[in-house]
Amino acid sequence: MPQGSETKADGTEQEPGNARSRRGLLIGAGLAGVAGLAAACGGSGDGAGFGGSGGSGGGDAGTDAGGALAAASEIPVGGGKVFEDAEVVVCQPQQGRFTAFSASCTHRGCSVGSVSGGTINCPCHGSKFKISDGSVVNPPADEPLKKKNVTVQDGKIMLA
Q1: Same domain, yes or no, for 92 and 154?
Q2: The domain that contains 84 carries what CATH number?
Q3: Whole-model pTM over 0.85
Q4: How many CB atoms lie within 10 A of CB 73?
Q5: CB 81, CB 89: distance < 8 Å
């Protein structure tokens, strides 16, 4: 019998209360860490995502349908920008031509994280989509991104 343990009436050993408390604390801390990691990876598909700013990825400027997302000048030709709050990615494949898609990857629902090299990129499993039409360039996704309607009014990109 380990030092400091007690024997219960049924013959099993029971550790002192402070050992149980430490074990519970460690288990709780481990579960909290796992939950935090899952949330950071965007596993819920709720739009939480990755990315920075500018042409390579995320921005927080978002709005409901009909509101301005950004100035058209903020979307680089041949690139795009992810708007996490609006769950949309806006691209400019050619000068003056804008496309927009859902920022939710069709593979597992992760938020796309960046736009570079003519593709919209998902950080979770490596799927890539064309900025011109949202079609799959690199699996594992096998469905294109859902198209969104945008217009340009007074130099601003608007969700239609």
Answers
A1: yes
A2: 2.102.10.10
A3: no
A4: 10
A5: yes
Range of the domain at 87: 54-159
Contact (CB, 8 A) for 109 and 69: no
Helix (H/G/I), strand (E/B), else coil: 113: coil
Mean pLDDT by 10 residues, the chain (160 residues): 56 55 58 46 36 38 65 97 96 97 96 96 97 98 97 94
In whole angstroms, how far apart are CA 38 and each of 30, 46, 54, 86, 117? Answer: 13, 12, 26, 22, 29
Same domain, 74 and 152: yes
Closest CA to 157 of 52, 53, 86, 58: 86
Give the strand pairing for 58-59 and 79-83.
parallel
Question: Do residues 69 and 98 make contact, with C-beta atoms less than 8 angstroms apart?
Answer: no
The number of domains in the chain is 2
At residue 36, φ and ψ (nearest 5 deg) are -65, -40
Residue tagged 């680089």 (tokens): 76
Q: From CA 39, how far away is CA 33, in angstroms rounded?
A: 10
d(CA 1, CA 7): 8
